[in-house]
Amino acid sequence: MGSTLMPFSLLSATPSPSKARVTSSPHVLNSPSSKPERLLQLQPYRTYIPSHVYCHPSAILLEICSDMRELNQILPLVIKNGLYNEHLFQTKLVSLFSKFGNLAAATTVFNPIEEKVDALYHTLLKGHAKYSSVDETIAFFNRMKHDEVQHVVYNFTYLLKTCGDNSDLKRGKEIHAQLFCNGFGSNVFAMTGIVSMYGKCGQVDDAWKMFDRMIQRDLVAWNAIIAGYAQNGLARRALELVIKMQEEGQRPDSITIVTTLPSCGDLGYSRIGKSVHGFVIRAGFASLVNVSTALADMYSKCGLVKTARLVFDRMRNRTLVSWNSMIDGYAQSGHSEEAMVVLQKMLDEGLKPTDVTIMAALHACADLRDLERGSYIHELLNQVGLGSNVSVMNSLITMYSKCKRVDISAKIFENLREKTLVSWNAMISGYSQNGHVNEALNYFCKMQQEKIKPDSFTMVSIIPAIADLSVLRQAKWIHGLSIRYCLERNVFVMTALVDMYAKCGGLPTARKLFDMMQDRHVTTWNAMIDGYGTHGLGKAAVKLFEVMRRGVIKPNDVTFLCVLSACSHAGLVEDGCRCFTMMKSDYGIEPVVDHYGTMVDLLGRAGKLDEAWDFIQKMPIEPGISVFGAMLGACRIHKNVELGEKAAERLFDLGPEEGGYHVLLSNIYANASMWDNVAKVRTMMEKKGLQKTPGCSLVELRNEVHTFYSGSTDHPQSKRIYTKLEVLGDEIKAAGYVPVTNSIHDVEDEVKEQLLNSHSEKLAIAFALINTNPGTTIHIRKNLRVCGDCHEATKYISLVTGREIIVRDMQRFHHFKNGTCSCADYW
C-alpha cells in the first residue's frame, strides 16, 4: 500500500519514552490549529527524565514485551525498582495495557498521572476503540474534549471504525459531524474512515457520496468503497469499481484482491475469478494465506470445488479461516462427505473448531441425513463451548430436523434463551419437511404471538405445509398474510404460493399469480408445469414448457421430470419421448433414475408394456425401486401377470421398506383370479413385517379437518354417513353404476359391496354432502391412490348430486363433474 500506510505503522508501534513528545509532533501538525510555540513547549520534557532510566533492564524488557503474560511478569520489576511513577514507564504501561486490551489496568495507570501529555490520551482512545463498547469509547472521547486535548485525525478514524464495526449509524454520523467541525473534512484518512463506516452500516449510497467528494483518493480509499459495495451484496458494482480504480492509475494490492474475490464468488463469475488468480500469481500474492483462502472460497462458490481444493492443498500455511472456507465450500456445493473428511483432518492437526466450522459440519451432516455424525458434532460443539451460540444451535435444529429427529430439534428450540427469527424459521421448516403440518402451523402462530415478524424464509417454510394440508381456505389465509407482510413481490414466496394453490386445487389462481410475476425463477416454471401435470392437463404443461424454452430461463433436470410426469398422466407418449431425448441433446442434462422411472411409467400407462420392459433392459444406469415400481403399476393397470411378476421379482430384491408394491402384485393376481398367489403375497408380507397402509381421507369443514379411515365408525355422524351412503348407492346404481369387485374374493357379492362402500373417500364425500349446501364444491384429500371402484362411484355421485368433487390422491388431482373425471379414466 506504499507510503500511505506509514501513519498507521507509526501508531501501532510502541514509541520509546525518549521520543514520546516527538511522536506527538506529527499528530499535532495534522491539526489545523497547531502552532510552533506548542512544539517548543513540548521539547524540554526530555530533559527531566534521568538517563539511567532508559538503560534500566525493565525499560528494555518493556520494549520487547509481546503479550499480557510477559507484561504481568515485568510489572513487579518496575514497581520493585521504584520506577512506576516515572513518565517513561507510565507512558509505556498505558500503551502496552491498551495494546493488549486490558483497559482497566491502562486506566489505573493513566488516571493518577498529573501531567498527561496528549499522546497518552490518543493511545488510550485507540485501546477503547479496539476493545471497549461504543458507549465507553465515546465517553472517553468526551473526556478528552473536557480535558482540552488537541484532537488529531486518527482519533476520529478510530471512532469511525468502532461505529462501523458495531453498525452504530447514529454515533457514526455524530463523529462524522465532529470530524468536519475540527477541520479534517479534506483529510484523505478521515474521509476514508467515513466511507468505511457508512459501508459497514449498510449505507452504501452515503459511502459513495463521501468517496465521490474526495479530492484525493489513495489505494486505501478505493479499497474501502469497494468493500462497502461488496459487503452490502452489490457485487457487480464492486467489480466495476475495481476496473475504474485501475483506470485512474491505482494498482490493486492484496487487500483489494481479498475484497474482490468474494464478489466473483457471489456472482458465479469463475472467468473473472480466474483472471484475478492470474494477477495474484504475477503480483506475487499467491503465498499470502488470506489471498489463497479467498481464492479457495471463490472457486467453491463458483462450483469449482476441485480447483478450490487444489489451491487449499498448495497452501504452505493455513489459518482456521482457510480450513473453514474449504469445509464450508464442500458443504455448500453438495460434497458433504468430503467436507467431513477435511473436518477430521483439521481436528487431527489439533485446531479448535469455531462456530463457522461447526455450522458447516452440521450442514454436511444434514445433507447426508447422517444422524450419528450429527450427534458427534453436537457433542463437539459443547466441548468447545459453543452450546450457547444461537447461530450454531439454529444449525443444530436444522440438522436434527433433516435427520427426521424433529423431536430433538424441538427440545433444543425450547431450551434456547434467545430465540431469533432464524430459530423460529428452522423449527417451522423442520416440522413442515417432516409432514407435521399442524405443529408447523402452531409454531407459526406462536411466533406471531411473540410479535416476531415473519420474513420470506418463514413464508417459504410454512406455505408448503399449507399445500400439504390441501385446504383452499387456509391457502387464501396464508396468501393474505404474505401480502400483509409486503412479501407478494418476493420471487421465492410467490413461487411457493403458485405451488400451494396448484396443490390445493386452485389451479386458475396459481396461473393468475404466475402471470402476475415480473421475475420468475426456474423453480417458478417447474411449479406451474407440475401443477398442470398433477391436474391431468398434460397438453397445457407441454405448452407452458415450450413457452419457457423460448425465454431466458433454461429448464433444469426438475423441469424435465415435471414435463415427463405430466405427459405420463395424460398419455402424451410422443411428447414425453421427445422431451426425454431433448434433455441430453439440447440441454446436456444427463437423466437420472427418476427420469427413467417416469419414462417407464409413461410407456407402461399407455399400454406399451413390452417397450417399457425393453427400455428398462437398455438403461445405462442400474434401475432402482422407482423404475420397477412404475413397471409393476403399469402391469396392474393392464392386467399383465407375466411382466408384473418379473418386475416384482426385481423390485423385491431391492428391499422396499413399504408394503404398497406387494399390494400391487396382489391386485394383479386378484384381477386374474389367481387367489393362491394372492395368499402367497400376503404371507410374504407377514414374514417381512410389511403392512398395507390404511386408506385415509380428509375433508375440511368450518375450520376443522375431519379424518376418515376405511371401515371406521368412530365419527360422531357415522350413522348419518352410512345412511347417506346407502341412499347414494341406490341413486347411482339407478344411473348406471356397477360396483368394481374384482379385487375382493372369498365373500358374497353383497358383502363385497359393503366393504367397498366403507372406503375412506366415500365416507368423506357422504359427510361433506350432509354438511354443506347444495352446489358447494367438495374437496377431498386421500393418502393413497384412488381405487377403481371409488373412482367409478364418485363419477356417478357427481352426476346424481350435481356437485363438483375434487379428490387429491397421492399422485394427482381428479376433478369429478357431471359424471366424468378430468383424468378421462387415465390414471
If you had to describe this structure to a student in words, what would you say it looks like?
A hairpin with a 4-residue loop joins β4 and β5 (813-817). Residues 1-49 and 745-749 have low confidence and may be disordered. 67% of the residues lie in helices and 3% in strands. It is mainly α and 827 residues long. The chain has 46 helices and 6 strands. Among the domains are: 1-151, no CATH class; 318-407; 592-692, Serine Threonine Protein Phosphatase 5, Tetratricopeptide repeat (Alpha Horseshoe); 697-821, no CATH class. It has a 6-stranded mixed β-sheet with strand order 2-1-3-4-5-6, with helices on one face.
